[in-house]
Structures are given as structure tokens and as C-alpha cells.
Specification:
Keywords: Hydrolase
Oligomer: single chain
GO molecular function: tRNA-specific adenosine-34 deaminase activity
Number of strands: 5
Pfam family, one: dCMP_cyt_deam_1
Bound molecules: zinc ion
InterPro entries: CMP_dCMP_dom, Cytidine_deaminase-like
Organism: Sphingomonas floccifaciens
């Protein structure tokens, strides 16, 4: 399912996710963007630290990758994320023109708090995109990625549910 370069880069994303500890309440999400075999961005979710509601790992990585390349478009790049990107990050991927999105844990692998109550399905988003040159694949090291987050049936009080 997830071999070679994809596995290698997802492991980097996992390391980034764990860089500030792996307590699930701190939203350990990691994202790596790779272009021509080179990691051009590696970012963790920073919503609480900044604070910035849009500072998801993917958003931060897209910003960093554009800074690194000096380009607004990331054509040919692959974005790796430890968790299925939310609607915002999926749209940002479309706008930034990345060629491929690979994610680890999917929506069904983690607690519902990680996604919008009325989830905009990422796959449908890509399918309906005005671009036909972007691919999305899930399940890369899914089990290891899912272990970073609260499980689907975790009994959490409202306070324990991180505001992502
Ligand atoms: Zn997001």
C-alpha cells in the first residue's frame, strides 16, 4: 500500500508530528512537501502556538514550500500528511497546484473531533476540482499515523477535544 519513497516521506511526516510530543490533545499532525526528491517543507500543526486557526500542518507546509521555492505554484510536488487533510487544506492543495496528496490515517481511523461536523469529503473535493491533474491517496502507514490521535470510539469530554 505504502512503499518506497512514499513510506520514507511519511516517516518524516510522522517525526515532524511527534516533534513536540505525541499527546493527542496537542494535535500532533505533520506534513512534508517533496519536490524532485527533496523535502522543501516539513511542518507541524501550529494552531495553538501561534495562535492561528488556519495553521494546520498542511497550510504551514504549503506556505514554507512556496517560500523555499520562491514560487506560488508547487507543480510536481507531493504533499504528505499524517492525517486526511480537512476541507481547507485540500482546497489549499488544489490552489497551490501540488500534483499529489498522500495521507496516513483516514477519517474513519480517528475520533470525529478531527473533522468538520458536516465533513466536506476530501475525495469528492478532489474529484470535483477544476483540476484533473491532482491525485490523492490514503492509508500510507495508516495504523502508525492513527496511533497519534484519539481513537474513533474514545470517550472524550468537550474540554478534552482539542480545538483544531
Ligand atoms: Zn486542515
Amino acid at each position: 500500500m505504502c512503499v518506497g519513497a512514499d513510506e520514507t516521506y511519511m516517516r518524516v511526516a510522522l517525526e515532524v508530528a511527534r516533534s513536540k510530543g505525541s499527546d493527542p490533545s496537542t494535535s500532533p499532525l505533520g506534513c512534508v512537501i517533496v519536490l524532485d526528491g527533496e523535502v522543501i517543507a516539513a511542518e507541524r500543526n501550529q494552531t495553538q502556538e501561534l495562535p492561528d486557526a488556519t495553521a494546520h500542518a498542511e497550510m504551514m507546509a504549503i506556505r514554507r514550500a512556496c517560500e523555499t521555492t520562491g514560487e506560488m505554484e508547487l507543480r510536481g510536488a507531493t504533499l504528505y500528511s499524517t492525517l486526511q487533510p480537512c476541507g481547507m487544506c485540500t482546497m489549499a492543495s488544489i490552489w497551490s497546484k501540488v500534483g499529489r496528496v498522500v495521507y496516513g490515517a483516514g477519517r474513519e481511523d480517528v475520533h470525529p473531533m478531527y473533522f468538520e461536523a458536516k465533513h466536506v469529503d476530501t475525495l469528492a473535493f478532489i474529484g470535483d476540482a477544476y483540476r484533473d491533474d491532482i491525485e490523492i491517496e490514503g492509508g500510507c502507514l495508516a495504523e502508525e499515523c492513527a496511533s497519534l490521535y484519539y481513537s474513533p470510539d474514545a470517550d472524550l469530554s468537550a474540554d478534552e477535544q482539542a480545538n483544531l
